Each structure stands twice: as structure tokens, then as C-alpha cells.
Fold 2-haloacid dehalogenase.
Amino acid sequence: MSLFQPKFITFDCYGTLINFEMAPAATALYQDRVPAGKMRAFTDAFAAYRLDEVLGAWKPYEQVVDNAIRRACRRMGVEYREGDGKAIYDQVPTWGPHPDTSAGLAKVAKEFPLVGLTNAANVQIPHNIERIGVPFHAVYTAEQAQAYKPQMKAFEYLLGQLNCNPEDILHVSSSFRYDLMTAHDMGIKNKVWVNRGHEPANPYYGYTEIRDIGGLAAVVGL
């Protein structure tokens, strides 16, 4: 893959570039309602329901978060208080990049257009991207695509907006379930997995593994 020169390098944003703090946000909000020994199970359920919520027809991301936390509370027998979902949702624009993101992207931004594909709302992601401090060619949202990853429709929207084919891009993500599995099914052969410890390796899906964004330059021969 080091010889591949993509027309665009496309990225998952939250978790891959941006420090995804959904579990810490839920932990802080529910620490008076969930025993410490059950908090990991609670935040894991919250994460699982968020994935389930994005598999259907598009709805605002605030509803995704709120529905998921309601369902996690119901499953775990925890009190849900009106406004809990919005309190978590409102924190999203405040999240900044991983420590390796800005310098790693700066290495490749001069040679390749950078493009984000995110499940964020339109009003959220500009604040996160601004904190990275590296110029992006474009950032496309689930709200624009009217579909969330891992749905193919989100990737189809990306390719349509860029007017390119699956073989023209290099897609970078820390998640198999949200990105790399669908990218594989879409025929995107050139993929990078950023191993941030979110999910176990799955070599079937064909990717180059890097530990952080600092390793991306070597993948494209820089």
C-alpha cells in the first residue's frame, strides 16, 4: 500500500481523529446512579445501543444519543432523567483531537486532500475539526447523507460528493464495525486501521495497521 497514491484520504472522525468521550460523559452524568462496579457494563450498553440506533432511517443525532441512553438505562435498571441525552449530546462539540492527530495529519495534508465522513450533526463537527488545526478538503456528515455509518448509503454519498470511485480513496478508521467492514463491502481496497484499542484486529477486511495518525505518512510513501 505504500506505493498507492490516493486522490483523497478519507477519515472517520470521532474515535479515529477526535478523542471520543461518550463513555466518560455518561460516567460523569450517572456516577450517582450507577455503582462503580457496573459502570463499564452501563457504558458498553450505551455504546451498543448507539450502533443499533444508527442502523435504521436517519434521525437527528441528538435523538440517537437520547434513545441509546434511555435504552441503556432501561436495560440496566437505572433511573433516566429528562434531558440526560441532551446533556451528553451537547458535550460533543467540545471534544478535541487525540494527541497524535494534528501532527500526523499535517504530514500528509500538503500532498493529499483530507476528507472527513462522520456520524456527527452539521452543527457539531466544525468545532471538532477546528481544534485539529489542519485544513480539510471537505467534511461530510450523516445529516447531509441522510444515513449513518455503517450504512452503505453514507459511503455512497461520500463517493458521489467527491466524484470518485472506491479504488480512488484511502479510508482511515479506528473502527471495523462503523467503517472498515462497510468500506470492504463497498470495494474500498485501500484501508488503514488505527489501532486505538477500541476493537480487536480482524485481518479478513484487508488493511494496513498503524498505532496512531503519525504512522499514516509512511503508508502513502511520505
Remarks:
- The chain has two domains: 8-19+96-219, 22-90.
